[in-house]
Amino acid sequence: MLKLQISNESDRKEAQNRERRRQCELERRSRIFNARNRKIGVDVPFLERQIAEKRVERDEQERRDLAFAQQMIKDSNLAVILEAREKEERRRIDVEVNQFRQKYQRPEDRREFDLNDPDILKKQLPPRASDGEPVGLSSAQKFEGEDLALEERLKIMAEQKTAWLEQQVQERKAAEEERKKAEAAYMMAIKARDERASELNKLERECRYRLGQANLRYNEALAAEKKQLEQIMKEQEEADNTAEMYNNLTSDMLTENPDVAKSALGKNRAIGFMYKGMNQEELKKFYAAQKEQMAAAKAKRDAQDKMEAEWQALAKSIQREVARQDIADQRTRRDIARQLMEENQLLALQQKEKEKYYREVVYSNTPTDEYYAQFNTTTR
C-alpha cells in the first residue's frame, strides 16, 4: 500500500527557516565577497586638500556676500531717500490737483449739473407761467402738440450748444495745458531729485576726501611728534651715557685705588666688586705657592707616566695571550665547520630522499579544480 507523506506545520516552519537562512547567506556572501565594500582606508591628503579648497571657496563667497550686502544697504538707503522724496512730490502734486478741482472744477460748473441738481424742483417755475396767471397743479398744464416758445427755445439751444462747444474746447485746452504743466512740474521734480541725489553723492565724496585729508594730517602730526619725542629721548640717552662715562672715568674703579677694596668686616677681608689686585707681599706668597703646585704637578705627572708604562707592558702581554687564544679558537671553529658541513651534506641527502618519497608516493594524487572550488564558497 502506497504511503503518502503529508507536511505538517513544523515542516513548513523548518522550510521557511531554511529559506530565510539561505537568503541571509546569499546577502552576506554578496557583502563579504565584494571587493569594493571590503576596501578600507581613504586618501587623506586629497580629502584635506578638498577641505582646504572648500574653506577658501567659502571664505571668498562670504567676502563677496559681505561686499554685496554692504552695497545693497547703501543702495537701499539711497532708494529709501529717493522714494520719500518721490512720495512728497506726489503728495504735493495731489494737493495742487485737489486745489485746482475745488477752484475750477466745482460740481455746479458742470454742463449736466441741471440734471443732477438736488434743488432743481425748488428752482423750476410752474408750466405756462408766461401765459398769464398760473394755473393750479391739478389743472391741465400742457396739451399735445403745443409749443409756444419753439423759436426762442431753438435759439437758446443753439446758443447753448455753441457755448457748450466753446466751453469744451476751452476745457480741453485748459486740461491739456494743465497736463503739460503737471508733466513739466513732475519732470522738474524728478530732475531736481536726481540733481539733489548727485549733489548728496558729491558731498559724500567730498566729506570722505576731507576726512581722509584730516586723518592724513593727524597721522603726520603724530609721526612728527613721535619723531621729536624719539630725538629728545636719544639726546637724553646720550647725555646719560656721557655722564655715566665721566663718572666711571673719575671713579675709584678706574683710578686703581686699592683702599676702596678694604672691607669694614676685617683686616683680611675685601670687597669683591672693588678689588684692584694684590700687593707685592701677596704676589710673593702667590708665586711661592704656584711653584709648590708646579712641583707637585710634575711629581704627579711622573707617577702617572710610570703607571702608564706599566699598563702598556701589561696590555702588550694580554694582547699576545689573546692572539694565541684566537689562533686556537680559529682552529677549533674550522674543525666544527668541517664537521657541520659533513652533517649538512648528510641532511641534504636525507632531504632529497624524503622529497623523492613525497613526490612519488605521498603527492602522487594531484587535486583537480573541483577540489579547490569547494573552498571559500560560504561566509561561515
Would you give an account of this structure?
- The protein is mainly alpha-helical and 380 residues long.
- The protein contains 8 helices and no strands.
- It has helices at residues 9-32, 35-38, 44-104, 113-116, 120-123, 150-249, 280-360, 369-373.
- The relative contact order is 0.03.
- The mean pLDDT is 80.
Topology summary:
Blueprint (H helix, E strand, L loop, with lengths): L8 H24 L2 H4 L5 H61 L8 H4 L3 H4 L26 H100 L30 H81 L8 H5 L7
Subcellular location: Cytoplasm, Cytoskeleton, Flagellum axoneme
Family: Belongs to the RIB43A family.
Subunit structure: Microtubule inner protein component of sperm flagellar doublet microtubules.
Percent range for helical residues? over 70%
> How does the helix and strand content classify structurally?
mainly alpha
Give the averaged pLDDT, no decimals.
80
Q: What would you report as the Rg, rounded to the nearest angstrom?
A: 65 Å
User: What is the tally of beta strands?
Assistant: 0
- Helix-strand sequence: HHHHHHHH
The share of residues in extended strands comes to under 5%
Q: What is the global morphology?
A: flat
User: Separation of termini?
Assistant: 44 Å
The residue ranges in which pLDDT falls below 50 over 5 or more consecutive positions are none
Q: Strand count, sense and closure of the main sheet?
A: none
Contiguous helical run count: 8
